[in-house]
């Protein structure tokens, strides 16, 4: 009986189940995208900190936030730790990019298997029509300009 439930998970029963599974796959894809973006921002912040403190005297005091606690250290102690954190985050970003590619491949296979096509919503269609319809415009010169 356990094998039957596994088979049901692999093969959705109806169109609604397929749509729900597809939506959850797209949601996971979006979560991966947002996590990558968040981590890339952290890498950027780490780089800014490293660039700011590198030229300073290594024995100079600096403060570092560790688990919500502000700790006094020297630049000599903090700089390698920030570098290690940055490298660790970059490694995680690499793994997330691999997971992202796998998820994209899975979604593409799912779309091909169930012949899924994304329809534009009515709002998208209306917006694109508005953009096309508003292509005309009026060109007005600066105030006080006269035509001769």
From TrEMBL:
One of its GO terms (biological process) is protein folding. Residues 121-148 are annotated as: Disordered. Keywords: Chaperone, Coiled coil. Gene3D superfamilies: 1.10.287.370. Residues 86-113 form a coiled coil. GO terms for cellular component: prefoldin complex. Residues 121-133 have a biased composition (Basic and acidic residues). GO terms for molecular function: unfolded protein binding. SUPFAM superfamilies: Prefoldin. It comes from the Eukaryota. InterPro entries: PFD2, PFD_beta-like, Prefoldin. Pfam families: Prefoldin_2. PANTHER family: PREFOLDIN SUBUNIT 2. Belongs to the prefoldin subunit beta family. This is Prefoldin subunit 2. It comes from Chenopodium quinoa (Quinoa). The lineage of its organism: Eukaryota, Viridiplantae, Streptophyta, Embryophyta, Tracheophyta.
